[in-house]
TrEMBL record, chain A:
Gene3D superfamilies: Periplasmic binding protein-like II. Its main location: membrane. InterPro entries: PBP_domain, Phos-bd, Phosphate_ABC_transporter. The complex is composed of two ATP-binding proteins (PstB), two transmembrane proteins (PstC and PstA) and a solute-binding protein (PstS). Keywords: Cell membrane, Lipoprotein, Membrane, Palmitate, Phosphate transport, Signal, Transport. Residues 38-272 form the PBP domain. NCBIfam families: ptsS_2. It comes from Syntrophomonas zehnderi OL-4. GO terms for biological process: phosphate ion transport. GO terms for cellular component: plasma membrane. One of its GO terms (molecular function) is phosphate ion binding. This is Phosphate-binding protein. Part of the ABC transporter complex PstSACB involved in phosphate import. Involved in the system for phosphate transport across the cytoplasmic membrane.
UniProtKB/TrEMBL annotation, chain B:
Residues 92-300 form the ABC transmembrane type-1 domain. Keywords: Cell membrane, Membrane, Phosphate transport, Transmembrane, Transmembrane helix, Transport. This is Phosphate transport system permease protein. Part of the binding-protein-dependent transport system for phosphate; probably responsible for the translocation of the substrate across the membrane. It comes from the Bacteria. Coiled coil: none annotated. GO terms for molecular function: phosphate transmembrane transporter activity. The chain crosses the membrane at residues 38-65, 85-111, 132-156, 162-183, 240-260, 280-300. SUPFAM superfamilies: MetI-like (SSF161098). It is found in: Cell membrane. InterPro entries: MetI-like (IPR000515), MetI-like_sf (IPR035906), Phosphate_PstC (IPR011864), Phosphate_Transport_Permease (IPR051124). Belongs to the binding-protein-dependent transport system permease family. CysTW subfamily. GO terms for biological process: phosphate ion transport.
Length: 286, 313
């Protein structure tokens, strides 16, 4: 019995060592192939993109695809916010600045910046399909999220308290919403906080008194997008500019983009890059 | 493994045998050493991992206090990280309230179940129930959260008003999740009470209930308290299910139907996009949780010691 147990322990020990060895080996192999790269790549070097956290997930996926195509290139994608993206681009810390708003006049005057719009993001205000309200004014939406309007009957609905659903601090969609609708005022503290588009949709789809906001491309069948100021929440109205809850995603560079930065921006504007943007949840620029 | 000398073996054979035994013994010493070293290495790796995690959390979280005071961080109710307010007071209260709410109903039910399973139910039924409890413990927390979101939240919304995502929903789900911890450990400690105690009590004329009430439960006291404290630790640390059902508003709840945010929820909600001070503040929240759990573990150690003293007396 005793010997059997010993054998078992030794076996377990050996398996562990083997596993460690295998893990070590595979890691080495991985790093090796990464170092070697493909000799055929024309582009080489490191590209840094910094700025808006809303653009960040788009940049990350685009960077991933770009690196796949150009194995000699390393693209660093950083957050920090739109303003920091502008700062980093002017100072040279970033090759490309990502901004999810129009540049201010002051920013435009500070340096010669080339602006390249890469996508448009529309924010949809969504409610439960059972809700009889089908449209709101921007002002009403703001007052709901400030906590001033608390009942649906105040804005043409049934007599029921409004369940306000919001995204978490730091979320790009929340950032868009607070900038466009709230004018940077604080969202009411009693708002339900969900940390993904999916969770907001589930909450709104499950509560007939709920109101939430999601990226327009993510509105599905379970929830209803409200008309804002009389304009339907559809892509065409975003592009024509009549639907106001929208913002541009832009890349900025110092002077005209060159070399790696130009190659990356060209990729982003190519049909492939634009399709990635649509898949990730924004509208094409063209 | 001594060599048994069988009759009828020649001297030469005997000599050979003893040589083999000596060699075996020699090899076994080598193997023993190897095993000891392997085990030591495993233990060292485990200690190293804990040390690294601790250092990492503190290294990432402590810098926050050079910008905001510890008091502001712990007791301020202003959590607005994009504007530079990092007060986790509301979440601290949220964690405490939802944990207390869960304990309030799951401790009595858990203890009663444990007593039933250990003392009253026939052994076979007790065992089956124990397996059911283990099953309950094995369900991933996201599943609890999903059930909470689909069943409990709408139920609360329809029967009590509000939007359903609330302190109450969190307390119900957490209570279910800590039941297995409470039941399993209490039951084990009840079963570990020597049978003599029970027999003596019954022999003195006490009824079965009196025996449970005055002899068995007091004897298993330290185990029962440990189960409650461990359950509390689990409730404080639980994240996924709580995030899904409590609504996560960073404010002090005005009723049990109001939404709350716990410290764990705060981390998981915002870690995705957090950077700079915001991220540091989330690590600092982790530090507070870490210290809270370490504190609970220290209490358990104390209790375990107290338990053995009681046993002797």
């Amino acid at each position: 019995m005793r010997r059997k147990r010993n054998v078992a322990i030794v076996m377990v020990g050996m398996i562990l060592i083997l596993l460690l060895a295998v893990a070590g080996c595979s890691q080495k192999e991985g790093s090796k192939s990464g170092d070697d790269g493909q000799g055929t790549a024309k582009l080489e070097g490191t590209l840094t993109i910094a700025g808006s956290t809303s653009v960040q997930p788009f940049s990350e996926v685009l960077a991933e695809k770009f690196q796949e195509k150009n194995p000699g290139v390393k693209v660093n994608v950083q957050g920090g916010g739109s303003s920091q993206g502008v700062e980093a681009t002017i100072s040279g810390a970033a090759d490309i600045g990502a901004v999810s708003r129009d540049l201010s006049d002051e920013e435009k005057n500070r340096a010669k910046l080339t602006v390249t719009p890469i996508a448009i993001d529309g924010v949809a205000i969504v409610v439960n399909p059972a809700n009889q309200v089908s449209g709101l004014k921007t002002e009403d939406v703001k007052n709901i999220y400030l906590g001033n309007i608390k009942n649906w009957k105040e804005i043409g609905g049934i007599d029921a308290p409004i369940t306000v659903v919001s995204r978490e601090d730091g979320s790009g969609t929340r950032d868009a919403f607070t900038n466009i609708v709230m004018n940077k005022e604080d969202i009411v503290k009693s708002a339900i906080i969900q940390n993904s588009t999916g969770a907001v949709k589930t909450t709104v789809a499950g509560d007939k008194n709920a109101i939430g906001y999601v990226s327009m491309s993510k509105v599905g069948k379970d929830i209803k997008a409200l008309d804002i100021d009389g304009n339907q929440a559809i892509e065409a109205n975003v592009k024509s500019g009549t639907y106001k809850l929208q913002r541009p995603f832009i890349y900025i560079t110092k002077d005209n983009p060159q070399g790696l930065a130009k190659a990356f921006i060209d990729f982003v504007l190519s049909p492939e890059g634009q399709n990635i943007i649509v898949e990730e949840g924004a509208f094409k620029i063209k | 493994m001594e060599l048994i000398t069988k009759p009828g073996l020649s001297n030469c054979e005997k000599k050979n045998r003893s040589l083999i035994v000596a060699e075996n013994r020699h090899r076994r010493v080598d193997v023993e050493k190897l095993i000891e070293k392997t085990l030591l290495l495993s233990a060292a790796v485990f200690v190293l991992i804990i040390a690294l995690i601790t250092i990492f959390i503190f290294a990432k979280g402590l810098p926050l206090f050079s910008k905001i005071g510890l008091g502001d961080f712990l007791f301020s109710n202003q959590w607005n990280p994009t504007k530079g307010f990092f007060g986790i007071g509301t979440m601290f209260i949220g964690t405490l309230l939802v944990t207390m709410g869960a304990m309030l109903w799951s401790v009595p039910i858990g203890l009663s179940s444990a007593i039933f399973m250990a003392e009253i139910a026939p052994p076979r039924i007790g065992k089956t129930l124990g397996q059911l409890v283990n099953l309950l413990a094995g369900i991933p927390s996201v599943v609890y959260g999903f059930v909470g979101l689909i069943v409990i939240v709408p139920f609360i919304r329809e029967s009590f008003g509000g939007n359903g995502m609330s302190l109450l929903a969190g307390a119900i789900i957490l209570g279910i999740m800590i039941l297995p911890t409470i039941i399993n450990i209490s039951r084990d400690s009840l079963l570990a009470v020597p049978n003599d105690y029970k027999s003596s009590s019954l022999a003195l004329g006490a009824t079965h209930f009196q025996t449970i009430r005055y002899v068995i439960v007091p004897a298993a006291r330290s185990g029962i308290i440990t189960s409650v404290v461990l359950g509390m630790g689990r409730a404080i640390g639980e994240t996924m299910a709580v995030v899904m059902v409590t609504g996560n508003s960073a404010m002090i709840p005005t009723s049990i139907l109001a939404p709350i945010r716990t410290m764990t929820s705060n981390i998981v909600l915002e870690m995705g996009y957090a950077s700079g001070d915001h991220q540091t503040a989330l690590f600092a929240t982790g530090m507070v949780l870490f210290l809270l759990i370490v504190g609970l573990n220290l209490i358990i150690n104390r209790l375990a010691k107290a338990g053995t003293d009681d046993g002797r007396g």
